[in-house]
Amino acid sequence: MWNREKLALVSPVFVILLGQFCIRLFADRCGNWAWLPFCLFYWALIGGLTWLLGGWLSIRRWLQPARGKRWWLALSILFPVALTFPILLPNRHLLLSAPALLGTALFVLLNPSLEELYWRGLLLDVNPKWPRWVSASYSLFFFTLHHAWLGVISPAGRHSSAFVGTILMGMLWMFLRFTTNSLRWPILSHFLVNLLGLSVPVFLGLYVP
Length: 209
Prior knowledge:
Layout: H1 4-30, H2 35-62, H3 71-91, H4 98-122, H5 132-146, H6 150-153, H7 160-180, H8 184-196, H9 199-203
Helix pairs in contact: 1-2, 1-5, 2-4, 3-7, 3-8, 4-8, 5-7, 7-8
């Protein structure tokens, strides 16, 4: 019989398969703007899975105040800033157009929280009996694989830096989740990466590494 734990365990497979179908469907019709209907679908999907399979009590637990030393907060800010500032500084003008500005506002408002709740909340707790390294590897593998959707609409998504960056940030956010027993700092760090890393200009093909 399928219970919540088993459904959560297999859910990344369906998230990736449905996501690939969705992005390819919209790419044929919307070009670089396929990211918008795809993200709306993706956010609804992972938000619904988190709510149905994790539940309100789990969400509250994942969003509880961060524990541990304050310098974990500094790490969650400084690492993404150091990683993305060399990209932002010479290309900051790409955020100033109305479409990029509005798209970025929508993306950074929704994406960090919903992704962290699913990939570092639900999936890291998918099986309480697993050692942490197994849960972490499971989540990171599918998180990295999922981000291959970007390569369908943007050359930047096929660049090696996108693959390496996804792994590095995924590892940092898992480390922060385990260390602070909360998703607050991972969400903040994720927000900075999405904002300073020119996510929407990358989606639109305005910036290519």
